[in-house]
Amino acid sequence: MPEMPEVQGLVEFLDERAVGSTITRANVTSISALKTYDPPFADLVGTSVSGVARHGKFVDIGCGAELHLVFHLAKAGWLRWYERLPETPIKLGRSPIALRVGLDDGSGFDLTEAGTKKSLAVYVVRDPQEIEGIARLGPDPLDAGFSRDALAALLAGRRTQIKGLLRDQSVIAGIGNAYSDEILHAARLSPYALAASLDEGEIDRLSEAMRETLREAVAAASGKPPADLKDAKRRGMRVHARAGEACPVCGDTVRSVFFADRSLEYCPACQTGGRILADRRLSRLLK
């Protein structure tokens, strides 16, 4: 799933490449992806791209003075950019393409989604806050106001495993499965530790790890075209999706815990005092 750094990379790319262009084509090819009906999707045609912003994992394309084309790529979605948009018609229901947008210089992009579980979401709104997923977002961890003390306040009293809390968009916006693994590894914290149980030193480490991990990932994504962002993300991972490999910090073997639709990765030596986590239900809650 694209997370904050990759989404920020897309935002910067689109802001540089598309702002000032006029939308000449806007086609929804997957009806399930479009979550709004007013304003009509067709109203995008003829508007000028006025700016591109990020809200958590949502991309917000300003269209003219009043409209916003907003999308969330979900687990298997992505943006495919073309300097020359294909003229080949898209067959409804027979293509991974959910949306196609063309600009007046001939360029444009598709939103694609792999797999059979279709979760990609597209909205046309007058105000991004009309979208429930945006309205309920917690603070952005890279905002200047998100301090160590602000993080401590979010953790206080929460009897929730820290891994799940980092992924909760209503608590902290933009972090998903991959970067929560990376942050917890950098902070030397078990994914099963309870948020409220962290001591002052552990909160210090978590705050620093969150800030540095995300800043480094955003910097690595900056300036890259969409086609290169996924590979850049994979190369930057130390533990996520690296089960069986050596931890780059201590050399111990990176381990996985599997769930129904995802897994988490961690280093026992760095994060759990050498103990192996069996699974979420049977393992002890570790500090």
Account of the protein in words:
With 287 residues, the protein is α+β, with helices and mostly antiparallel strands. It folds into two domains: 132 residues, MutM-like, N-terminal (N-terminal domain of MutM-like DNA repair proteins); 124 residues, Helicase, Ruva Protein, domain 3 (Orthogonal Bundle). Helix content is 28%, strand content 20%. The protein contains eight helices and ten strands. The strands form three sheets. A four-stranded antiparallel beta sheet has the order 1-6-7-5, with no helix packed on it. The protein has a four-stranded antiparallel beta sheet with strand order 2-3-4-8, with helices on one face. A hairpin with a 2-residue loop joins strand 2 and strand 3. Helix 1 packs parallel to helix 6 and helix 5 crosses helix 6. The longest helix is centred in the C-terminal third of the chain and has 22 residues. It is elongated and about 60 Å long. The relative contact order is 0.14.
